[in-house]
What does this fold into?
Amino acid sequence: MSHLSPALYATLADVVPDLHVHCIDPWCVIGSTAALLLGAEVGAADVDVLTSRADAEALMAHWAQRRELAFMPADGDRFRSHFARFRFPGAPVEVMGALELHADEGWRPVRPGKLVLAGVNGLAVPVPCVEDQIRLCESFGRPKDLQRAALLKQLSEERP
It folds into this structure.
């Protein structure tokens, strides 16, 4: 895929086979990488992976040597999960097991919605469909998420 940077491509080539093998429950890529994989004109500095809590544990064990133990995610008052960040040669990978979002009604699980498969050189990468990515970005509500939602809306308007 020409719109992927070599670093992001290398990371996906490294991690996606492991995700297919080590995750028992459904998982998906979210955030900027997911938007990019569906064709949005966004930059992506890392790979955000949404998993179950159990699968996050499995990945923490499998990738233990790559884990950045000192890293603390931002927005801890807005998001919580069984979180770990891992170093890969191309880009960092952030795993969020059982991600929850704090809203007016309290903590609620983040549900990715309908998943579609994005192809990356023969690898099937599950990502939320464009409509569900827009919903997720708008629910997250941060400026970068709202900007991504606007770009995804533009993308969906350009496609028949």
Remarks:
- The helical segments are 6-22, 31-37, 53-62, 130-140, 143-158.
